[in-house]
Amino acid sequence: VEAILLVGAACVAAVLLQAGLSKLVRPDGLRRALAELGLPLATTGTVRAFAVVECVAGAALLTAATRPAGAVLVVVTGTAITGLGLVGAVRHVVEPCGCFGGAHGRPLGLSNAALGAALVTGGAAVFVATPPTGTAAVLATALALLLLCVPVHRGWAWPLIRPARSARPDRLPVAPPEGLPS
Amino acid sequence: VILFLSVVVLVLVGAVVMILAMLGELSSRVPAPEGAQNNRVEPVETARAGHGPDSWPTELAGVADHEYCLLLVLSASCSSCATVADQFSTMLGHGQANVGIVVVCPVRERGEHFAAAHGIDRTTVFYDKGGAWSRTELGIDTSPTAVLFHNGRVRSAMYFWDLPTVFRAVGSLNAEEAV
To answer: How distant is the Cα of A5 from the closest Cα of chain B, in angstroms?
Structure first.
């Protein structure tokens, strides 16, 4: 049970750190998404402030002294993400959400609401239960963060770690036909 | 000491995350050199080559009747697809009766908004909710993708970034003339 709690808390912390650190560097994606929702606080500063809250929430889960406060922050953050996702789903927005700093991807919608709900659940679980903190939590979070950054930043990370191809095709595998008559 | 080293590891991983995000930000500010990024196609390895869809959407029936036809699979939430849709809208009316458009969208309204915003609603568009038809019948789950059919069966499929490049790749339309 302790291991499950450790992994769960590490995943929650890693998601928040990944989202927060990425948005600190690339706030424009979420800013555009918030602007599409018509929120008056859709500014770069607001997005960066939200990113700092995410980072603090994630990091606070790693020590015993700050864990309860961190869990509350996680619940608050998750609730905000859920709300934004639901509003985005209702309004059928099209701007990529920029949740992890990317300029492409899905817009705010039900997937964000689901992730937010998962964070709320995780934050509540961390608050009620007592997952391990300290060295184990820090190392587990570092590992989860490393694993998470590969799919999130796959455009840059994947070429660095994928197996080398012996022969990269530069032509279509099937020869094109003689013509495509109109 | 172990705790300190663990924190150092976490900080280093955090730095990696920020560097990767920064690379993305920098690359988004640098325009791709003409001809380096856009003028290429890549094969789609998941495409169901040789397979003929069990059922064609009624919107695409007219396209599928041709000996050769090309389907452009676009997503309503992809910036490259928006560029392709803009390119296609400028080519409407130039005799591409055997070219069909599939817009993958979570709900039809979003697909229609995408088509209207980029001027492709003037042609026949199939709105593929959730990409179910593209995924199951064509093996396509990424966009923008061009799927070439011969006698109703998938002959090849390719990722692309520029519509004229696709037409050149299939060896048919003189895209520059058409545009």
So the answer is: 19
CB–CB of A103 and B24 under 8 A?
yes
DSSP 8-state code for residue A107: B
Can you tell me the distance from the alpha carbon of A109 to that of A89, in angstroms, rounded to the nearest whole number? 4
> What is the Cα–Cα distance from B68 to B151, expressed in whole angstroms?
6
DSSP A151-167: HHTHHHHHHHHSPPPS-
* B57-102 confidence digits (pLDDT tens): 888 887 778 888 888 999 888 778 888 888 888 776 665 668 889 9
Q: Position B80: which residue type? A: S
- Chain B residue numbers with beta carbons less than 8 Å from the beta carbon of A109 are 106
Residues of chain B contacting A155 with CB distance shorter than 8 Å: 24
pLDDT tens digit sequence for B14-57: 999 999 888 888 877 776 565 556 677 888 878 888 888 888 88
- What's the rounded Cα separation, in Å, for the pair A29 and A27? 6
* Contact list, B113 vs chain A (CB under 8 Å): 92, 94
pLDDT tens-place string over residues B99-139: 889 998 888 888 888 888 888 888 878 998 888 888 888 88
Cβ–Cβ below 8 Å for A172 and B21: no
Interface confidence: ipTM more than 0.95: no
**Which residue is closest to A176 within chain B, CA to CA?**
B170
Q: Coil, helix or strand for B154?
A: strand
